[in-house]
Specification:
single chain, 2-enoyl-CoA Hydratase, Chain A, domain 1, OB fold (Dihydrolipoamide Acetyltransferase, E2P), 3 domains, elongated, Nodulation protein NfeD, transmembrane helix
């Protein structure tokens, strides 16, 4: 206990004597590359980068960005993380020809240091719906206020922030520098780190900010990438892919239920469903849409189990369309070009699966002893009221149900007792009777050697 008290007192003394201004003199700069759309996966990755940079005392956290935009909710999370970051955050729009459009513009302006490479541009932050249409006036006003608040927090141009949302304004690097949108234009990562060396920025949450002087010239950089699983999650972070995986996976499972086989359809369907739910795990979704998706699956299963005139299939199709409409939140949505064809294909496939299941249930058994019932054969040998007959490629002992069988008699299998087949006489004129198999030939006696000339016509080769 005394040791703990002394340690606590020493830590408190250190905190009291620390100066208000610190120096980010970590051994390296953590670097993350973002060259894709802004999704929850990217937001989680950047949050992890901020946490790692703070934990390791990095000199700065550098985010190199080239993005067409992304989800507004994910962008808000990234901006909040940058505002409260314990280390300086530098966002660098690069390489030449890259862009920080829409969500990328919000993220760039929220950094402690905003930089651009020559030949890049920033802006065009007007929010759109999942189908690419301009969002409602309410959403536009909210986004404009969000952009202006970012600009005010970082001392950037509020006029540009408002215009990029309301008017879709976009500026190249040179004008963005003159218009107080960014802090520096640098041709490379090394030049950027050298240019910002010695800059003082405020880091930390608003109630606990401190001044930090950047020391980034010549420091080593450490890459912080998404990795294989992160790339996979980013690939799956698509509403269209999630809807396709869930829909087609359900259809594959239905076909496995309708006509069980070696399990290819079932395994494929299960894998697609797992990928679909993995996509849902990284996308914001509504419970109502998920329940509609489950209802559609239940109706399709009902169509397979109790096929009728297609009522269940029609209901499942309607439910699937509604699920695609209500499944995702915010600006996300399934493209109608994917939604309607997928719903119709899955609905029609469920109807066909129901017909296949109905036909399979009505078909006679094709395996086991029941498959022999109804087969016709010819009795070849008979003794003591029983005989031998070739039935479905195998020799069986046959017994008459009401009377003994005779050799050469045409019979039809009506039952089975032990290893004997029970038969009834059959009409020999029935065209369904199988052709009478030939008796196995008796082995020929070896020819006696004979002497003399082979001068007969029969003996000539």
């Amino acid at each position: 206990m005394r040791i703990l008290v002394l340690a606590f007192a020493a830590a408190l003394a250190c905190l009291l004597v620390l100066p208000a201004a610190g120096s980010a003199q970590g051994g390296s700069v953590l670097v993350t590359r973002v060259d894709t759309t802004i999704t929850p996966v990217v937001a989680d990755h950047l949050r992890e980068g901020v946490r790692i940079a703070g934990r390791e005392g990095a000199a700065a956290y550098l985010v190199e960005i080239d993005t067409p935009g992304g989800l507004l909710e994910s962008t808000r999370r990234i901006v909040q993380d940058f505002f409260s970051s314990p280390v300086p955050v530098i966002v660098y729009v690069s390489p030449s020809g890259a862009r920080a459009a829409s969500a990328g513009a919000y993220i760039t302006m929220s950094a402690h240091i905003a930089a651009m490479a020559p030949g890049t541009h920033i802006g065009a932050g007007t929010p759109v719906t999942g189908q690419g249409d301009k969002a409602s006036e309410k959403v536009v006003n909210d986004s404009a206020a969000f952009a202006v608040s970012i600009a005010e927090r970082r001392g950037r141009s509020t006029a540009f922030a408002d215009d990029m949302v309301r008017k879709g304004t976009a500026w190249p690097d040179s004008r963005a520098l003159r218009g107080d949108v960014i802090d520096v234009v640098a041709p490379s990562r090394g030049a950027l780190l050298k240019d910002v060396d010695g800059t003082t920025v405020s880091v930390g949450p608003p109630d606990a900010q401190r001044q930090v002087v950047l020391h980034t010239a010549g420091v080593r950089t450490t890459e912080h990438g998404l990795g294989f699983f992160g790339e996979l999650r980013q690939l799956l972070a698509s509403p269209e892919l999630a809807f396709l995986f869930l829909s087609i996976g359900t259809l594959a499972v239905l076909y496995e239920l309708a006509s069980p086989g070696i399990g290819v359809a079932g395994i494929t369907g299960a894998l697609l469903l797992v990928l679909g739910f993995a996509a849902l795990s990284v996308l914001p979704f509504n419970l109502a849409g998920l329940f509609l998706l489950l209802l559609a699956a239940a109706l399709f299963v009902a169509e397979v189990l109790t096929p009728g005139v297609g009522v269940f299939a029609a209901g499942g199709t309607v439910s699937l369309v509604l699920a695609g409409i209500f499944l995702f939140r915010g600006e996300l949505g399934v493209d109608p070009a994917v939604l309607w064809p997928t719903a119709l294909v899955v609905g029609g496939g469920a109807l066909l699966a129901g017909r296949l299941a109905w036909r399979a249930r009505r078909a006679p058994a094709l395996t086991g002893h029941d498959a022999l019932i109804g087969s016709r054969a010819v009795v070849h040998r008979a003794a003591d009221g029983t005989g031998q007959a070739l039935v479905e490629g195998a020799w069986w002992t046959v017994r008459g149900r009401d009377e003994p069988v005779a050799a050469g008699q045409h019979v039809r299998v009506v039952g089975r007792e032990g290893l004997d087949l029970i038969v009834d006489p059959a009409d020999p004129a029935d065209p369904a009777d199988p052709a009478e198999p030939a008796e196995p030939a008796e082995p020929a006696e070896p020819a006696e050697p004979h002497e003399g000339r082979c001068d007969t016509e029969e003996n000539t080769p």
